[in-house]
């Protein structure tokens, strides 16, 4: 083989290896993966949304009592997350394993990306947050990563996959009822 052919062969081989992606592995102890959360304090209080667990089960909530909201850094203890899960109702729908894995693979990219500054854009619309989570066995906490916030306030994660996650969660929200 000539030198250019050898170089092209090596480059092709390296490209082929680098394009093979492994699935992102979530921690075996992680149950909570995604959250769609809507809160509106106008004309009373309304809080509803859903969680997606590690098995793809969609768990809904509507004005739950004693809800554990993540702290300012979007962190929940394992106990708080489990309490929230217990306060939910199964929607009777489940995300297919292959589809769920596709979106789980996006979590690591979203977690490593920046989020735009929060802007006040509306009034009385409430706020919807789209969040993905990573669990740390070392700290026993779920760290949430904001994918997008919309409504009275808006900001978004700058990662390419963020738009895909938001569209997926909105589509999922359109198929369920919280009442």
Structure described in brief:
The protein is α+β, with helices and mostly antiparallel strands and 179 residues long. It contains four helices and nine strands, in the order αββββαβαββββα.
Overview of this structure, please?
The structure is a single chain. With 179 residues, this protein is of the alpha+beta class. The protein has one domain (24-173). The chain contains four helices and nine strands. Strands 1, 2, 3, 4, 5, 6, 7, 8 and 9 form a nine-stranded antiparallel sheet that branches. The longest helix is centred in the N-terminal third of the chain and has 17 residues, at 3-19. It is globular, with a radius of gyration of 19 Å.
* End-to-end distance: 69 Å
* Percent of residues in β-strands: 25-35%
Rounded to an integer, what's the Rg over CA atoms?
19 Å
Q: What is the number of helical segments per DSSP (H or I, 4+ residues)?
A: 4
Structural class: alpha+beta
Low-confidence stretches at least 5 residues in length (pLDDT < 50)? 10-20
Largest sheet: 9 strands, antiparallel
How is the topology of this model organized?
Blueprint: H1 3-19, E1 32-40, E2 46-53, E3 57-62, E4 75-77, H2 78-86, E5 89-94, H3 97-111, E6 119-120, E7 127-136, E8 141-151, E9 153-156, H4 162-173
Antiparallel strand pairs: 1-2, 1-7, 2-3, 3-5, 4-8, 6-9, 7-8, 8-9
Question: What keywords describe this structure?
Answer:
alpha+beta; 179 residues; 9-stranded antiparallel beta sheet; single chain; 33% strand
């Amino acid at each position: 083989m000539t030198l250019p052919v050898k170089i092209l062969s090596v480059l092709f081989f390296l490209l082929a290896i680098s394009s093979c992606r492994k699935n992102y592995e979530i921690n075996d102890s992680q149950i909570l993966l995604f959250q769609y959360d809507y809160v509106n304090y106008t004309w009373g209080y309304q809080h509803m949304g859903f969680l997606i667990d590690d098995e793809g089960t969609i768990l809904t909530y509507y004005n739950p009592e004693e809800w554990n909201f993540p702290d300012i850094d979007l962190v929940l203890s394992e106990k708080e997350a489990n309490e929230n899960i217990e306060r939910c109702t199964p929607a009777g729908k489940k995300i297919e394993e292959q589809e769920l894995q596709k979106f789980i693979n996006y979590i690591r990219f979203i977690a490593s990306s920046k989020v735009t500054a929060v802007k006040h854009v509306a009034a009385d619309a409430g706020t919807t947050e789209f969040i993905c989570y990573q669990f740390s066995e070392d700290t026993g906490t779920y760290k949430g990563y904001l994918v997008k916030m919309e409504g009275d306030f808006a900001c978004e994660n700058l990662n390419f996959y963020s738009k895909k996650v938001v569209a997926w969660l909105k589509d999922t929200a359109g198929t369920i009822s919280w009442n």
